[in-house]
Amino acid sequence: MKAKDSLDTKKFFENLSGAGKSIGVLTSGGDAQGMNAAVRAVVRMGIYVGAKVYFIHEGYQGMVDGGDNIKEASWESVSSMLQVGGTVIGSARCKDFRTHEGRLRAALNLVQRGITNLCVIGGDGSLTGANLFREEWSGLLDELVQSGQISEEAAQTHSALHIVGMVGSIDNDFCGTDMTIGTDSALHRIIEVVDAIMTTAQSHQRTFVLEVMGRHCGYLALVSALACGADWVLIPEMPPKDGWEEQMCHKLSESRLRGSRLNIIIVAEGATDRHGNPISSNTVKDLVVRCLGFDTRVTILGHVQRGGTPSAFDRILASRMGVEAVLALLEASPGTPACVVSLCGNQAVRLPLMECVQMTQEVQKAMDEKRFEEAVKLRGRSFENNLNTYKLLSHRKIDAELPRSSFNVAVLNVGAPAAGMNAAVRSAVRVGITEGHTLFAVNDGFEGFSKGQIKEIKWGDVGGWTGQGGSLLGTKRTLPAKHIDKIAEQMRIHNINALLVIGGFEAYLGLLELQAARSKHAELCVPMVMVPATVSNNIPGSDLSIGADTALNAITDTCDRIKQSASGTKRRVFIIETMGGYCGYLATVGGLAAGADAAYIYEEPFDIRDLQSNVEHLTEKMKTSIQRGLVLRNENCSENYTTDFIYQLYSEEGKGVFDCRKNVLGHMQQCYYAYIFGHFALLVDFVQYHIFVCFVGRVFANTEDSACLLGMRRRALVFQPVIQLKDETDFVHRIPKEQWWLRLRPLMKILAKYKTSYDVSDSGQLEHIVRLRAKDISAI
Q1: Is the dihedral angle over the CA atoms 522, 523, 526, 531 positive or is it negative?
Q2: Where along the chain is ATP bound (predicted)?
């Protein structure tokens, strides 16, 4: 079924005009990957709505100095910057702006150009400075009038300054948003280094101490420790308890006794002990050498973490935030407080800037006063879940400390392999063991289940699984229906009391078939939960699937390389085919991340007239200074308009203006390493709060809610009975009937200079971080 929206229930932005308005965009403070994507989105959205947009080069310093530092931007001036790291408009620390005289000069420079809307991309210091500037604005204008530098009329015309902030910081240290621009890319850099270090560490049986950025926030250290399965992590929010040296050395020694050939310790640069004494990477190295005699090396990543191209996530986040920032400026009134555009779950929200800044400052205050538990909670629910997950997955309890249980849980992968499956299995196994249960690994999906390919899996068996792509358990697309009798027999033989199925659409269908067979097989009356893991992201009941983000990065990286390959040649358009079956998620979101001019998908029907219109549009763009075009096509978007057909059409119609190349990405989208930041807490939630609560007395579960799918919907993780998801599913095309990411398609078209409607029903509501925090804390 094709998705259709009812126009009368939606709010569109056509009535929001930027005519007569001027927007200034600047980047300030430390640079972060993705800042350029945010600048690009602000510029193009601003021009799209009829506003003038100005680059303010070198941050606040450029605003104070004026002159050529403040230049009007054009559509073409932000071309080819989406994939560039850092910030092309420059960033600088500015002492002048901290003075009243400096801000007075900045105000004069803005008024002279008619700029009364500022989009500031930076950290909490940059955003605090912007808010102070706004509060002083009317007073600054009065001073300029009195000194004769501007007229009374000019002061009245520019009487209100509107501020919207976007947080660009690799540290993810700003309260009010789940992720800041640049954090995901920095995590990628760290894990790339860890993967490289692991091979040499194993060769020589070494211990490596990695120091990562984070003077005041341990997010990078914590999540990278989760992602690589580090033996120990030291962060400023939760200093180790007294005696940590002995505990750490004991854990490292125990790991070696179990056969491990390496140890990884990750230290945030701001790590301290409980008494405020700094813990440096060299301090940790000396401790390990002195106490254990291990060959130990230190690697300080430094500014490598800031460098390189932004990840797909950061490009999409920054693009969404940039567009939302322009909408916020268009809707602002003189009384509207300065706001910051944030990410909550999968949704863009607006929060009062100073509420977020104050909450961020409270975290530091709690740390200074040694209220560490409170500091962790103030960081947010995501940070706290990550910390608890790390403790659960990395610190093995001795058998005497484990709770006793007679329950057996089977874990299996079903469907096509997806990056992150192995990390999901590792999480489930270790959490289950920690809870005292016996975990069984099933090889080769339901087919292996029917053949009895089942064996107990222990804590150490899943060591080192986090960074490996594919499925180490083995996975097949076979559905259980034709093997149901044998599967029920294996459930009885091994006394399986619960099932965790990690996989794609076949896993979803498999759970439906197992649930339907319960009336004939009592052995199947056990709790069953599915965790979506597929690059196609086509599972009903969940906005996101494990593996989809990794596939997007593979697509984005490939598109970058393909475009780079044509550098220095004549104008060229690339036609690229992506995977996804009938689901256009990879083509659409990959297109947004790579800066595509068009993305053809099944969910949005198109005909030859649409293709012709796209070719003509691209031809006109190519007559300007733009030299590269990118068109993505989902593999099953049309039976007749194949990749070859589209390639030949563009080649013929573009003669004399551009030439064409085509590329089919294929299964390389499935075979990347697994960078699945954030999914560990998802697995813990699943194991802790659903399956095991069913183990009371004899396990017999045959209600609808005992066979569930765990998915992310908008802002929350929710368990949904698979039987209730049937009405939401297009089984013929193996996609959900409604898909959230379709709302991003107009955004991609706007940034490619197409005239279209953009649904802003979810925009325009200023929320409050206090209310959000109250909900967060009550849910913990």
Answers
A1: negative
A2: 30, 93-94, 123-126
545 and 502 in contact (C-beta within 8 Å)? no
82 DSSP 8-state letter: T
- Alpha carbon distance 516, 604 (integer Å): 34
Which segments in the chain show pLDDT lower than 50? Answer: 1-10, 400, 670-691, 693, 695-697, 771-780
Q: Give CA–CA dist 437/46, Å, rounded.
A: 56
Q: Which of left, alpha, beta for 464 (phi over 0: left; psi -120 to 50: alpha)?
A: left
Q: Kindly give the residue spans of alpha helices, DSSP state H, lying in 451-566.
A: 484-493, 505-516, 548-565
Query: Two tokens at 3?
Result: 């998705």
- Contact between residue 396 and residue 359 where contact means Cβ atoms under 8 Å apart: no
The answer on whether 659 is annotated among ligand-binding residues is no
Q: How far does Cα 209 stand from its chain's mean position?
A: 26
* Total residue length of the chain: 780
φ, ψ of residue 276 to 5 degrees: the values are 85, 5
636 close to 615: Cβ distance less than 8 angstroms: no
Flag whether 579 is marked binding: yes
Collapsed DSSP state (helix, strand, coil) of residue 544: coil
Residue 138 in tokens: 């009317």
Distance in angstroms (rounded) separating the CA atoms of residues 242 and 755: 62
669 labelled as ligand-binding? yes
Q: How many beta carbons lie within 10 A of that of residue 8, not counting itself?
A: 5
Distance of CA 733 to the CA centre of its chain: 27
Angle formed at CA 599 by CA 597 and CA 605, multiple of 5 degrees: 130
CA dist., res. 431 & res. 456, Å (int): 15
The span from the CA of 179 to the CA of 166, in Å, is 11
β-strand pairing of 296-300 with 263-268 = unpaired
pLDDT at position 80 is 85
Q: How would you class 692 by CB atoms within 10 Å of its CB: exposed for 0-12, middle for 13-18, buried for 19 or more?
A: buried
3-state DSSP: the chain helix, strand, coil percent, rounded to 5? 45, 15, 35
- Res 242: pLDDT: 93
- 702's CB contacts (< 8 A; 6+ apart) are 518, 525
The answer to whether 477 is annotated as binding is yes
Known catalytic residue at 171: yes
> CA-CA distance, 25 to 18, in Å (whole number)?
15
Cα dist. 504→342, 454, 507, 533, 538 in Å? Answer: 30, 21, 5, 5, 8
Q: Tell me the backbone φ, ψ of residue 543, rounded to 5 degrees.
A: -70, -30
Write the DSSP symbol of residue 97. Answer: G
Residue pair 767/22 in contact (Cβ under 8 Å)? The answer is: no
- Whether 114 has a binding-site annotation, put simply, is no
Integer Cα distance of 731 and 568 in angstroms? 47
Across 612-692, the runs of DSSP E, i.e. the strands, are 628-634, 659-664
pLDDT in tens, 469-512: 889 999 999 999 999 999 999 999 999 989 999 999 999 999 99
Q: Is 715 annotated as a binding residue?
A: no
Q: What are residue 172's phi and psi, to 5 degrees?
A: 55, 45
Pairing type for strands 339-344 and 528-532 reads unpaired
Check 31, 65, 171, 314 and give the catalytic one: 171
Could you tell me the CA-to-CA distances from 534 to 504, 537, 578, 579 in Å, in that order?
5, 6, 14, 11
Q: What is the pLDDT of residue 684?
A: 40
State how far the Cα of 744 lies from the Cα of 196, in Å rounded to an integer.
Answer: 36
Of the candidates 310, 319, 377, the one whose C-alpha atom is nearest the C-alpha of residue 343 is 319
Cα radius of gyration (the chain) = 27
State the alpha helices, DSSP H only, in 566-657: 585-594, 608-622, 643-653
* pLDDT at residue 469 in the model: 83
With b for 16 or more beta-carbon neighbours within 10 A and e for fewer, the 707-732 pattern comes to: bbbbbbeeeebeebbbbebeeebbee
* Adjacent-strand bridge partners of 168: 181
